[in-house]
């Protein structure tokens, strides 16, 4: 639907991860201004799998910011 309307934009998703790399919290850090793009970005990132962040060989909880860009070519 967004493609048909020619909508583009970038959504920044913040994901909190536990020491196993599992998502514990996900939120929109910066909206694209379009709910269709925002929801699509959240749904896509929910499906991602992560490796835990390591410090000195030990896995720790962390937070990452992921830009999801929607661009028509």
Task: Describe the structure in brief.
The strands form two sheets. A three-stranded antiparallel beta sheet has the order 2-1-5, with helices on one face. A two-stranded antiparallel ribbon has the order 3-4. Helices cover 22% and strands 44% of the residues.
Structural features, described:
The mean pLDDT is 94. By secondary structure, the chain is of the alpha+beta class. The longest helix has 12 residues, at 35-46. It has one domain. The chain has two helices and five strands; from the N terminus they run H-E-E-H-E-E-E. The strands form two sheets. A three-stranded antiparallel β-sheet has the order 2-1-5, with helices on one face. A two-stranded antiparallel sheet has the order 3-4. It has helices spanning 2-5, 35-46, and strands at 9-17, 23-30, 53-55, 58-60, 62-70.
Overall outline = elongated
| Element-level helix/strand string | HEEHEEE
Low-confidence stretches: none
Domain unit count: 1
End-to-end separation in angstroms reads 16 Å
Share of helix among residues? 10-25%
The biggest sheet amounts to: 3 strands, antiparallel
Q: What is the strand content?
A: 35-45%
Number of strand elements? 5
Strand order of the largest sheet: 2-1-5
Mean of residue pLDDT values: 94
Structural class based on helices, strands and sheet pairing: alpha+beta
With helices defined by DSSP (H or I, 4 residues minimum), what is the helix count?
2
Provide the gyration radius in Å. Answer: 14 Å
């Amino acid at each position: 639907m967004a493609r048909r309307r020619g909508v583009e934009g970038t959504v920044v998703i913040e994901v909190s991860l536990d020491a196993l790399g599992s998502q514990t919290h996900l939120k929109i850090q910066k909206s694209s201004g379009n709910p269709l793009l925002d929801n699509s970005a959240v749904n896509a990132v929910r499906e991602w799998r992560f490796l835990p962040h390591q410090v000195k060989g030990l896995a720790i909880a962390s937070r990452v910011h992921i830009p999801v860009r929607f661009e028509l070519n």
